[in-house]
Specification:
Blueprint: H1 3-8, H2 34-48, E1 60-61, H3 66-77, E2 84-85
Parallel strand pairs: 1-2
Length: 86
């Protein structure tokens, strides 16, 4: 697969990191953590940036260990934003 495939099937992968100290959790039941807000904000900015073809109805999230907890938090704090989670 080469550049022509990317032109037809644009795919982006974001691999965010956070420290154990700040983590993915917030103490609020409704307000997301700073890290989760930053991720969603970044995705929205990229979707509005000319040259990026990002379909906001096809955003998926996954994570292992602490990242799995982050994926769970993201689904809970931003209902409807992510198409699915693993």
């Amino acid at each position: 697969m080469g550049p022509s495939f990317q032109n037809d099937q644009a795919t982006y992968v974001m691999i965010p990191q956070t420290s154990k100290k700040s983590g993915w959790y917030s103490l609020s039941y409704t307000d997301p953590s700073y890290a989760l807000r930053a991720i969603v904000h970044s995705i929205r900015i990229l979707a509005e940036t000319p040259g990026y073809r990002i379909d906001l109805s096809q955003i998926y999230i996954t994570g292992l260990s602490m990242g799995g907890a982050g994926a769970f938090q993201a689904m809970a704090k931003f209902p409807g934003f992510f198409a699915g989670a693993v």
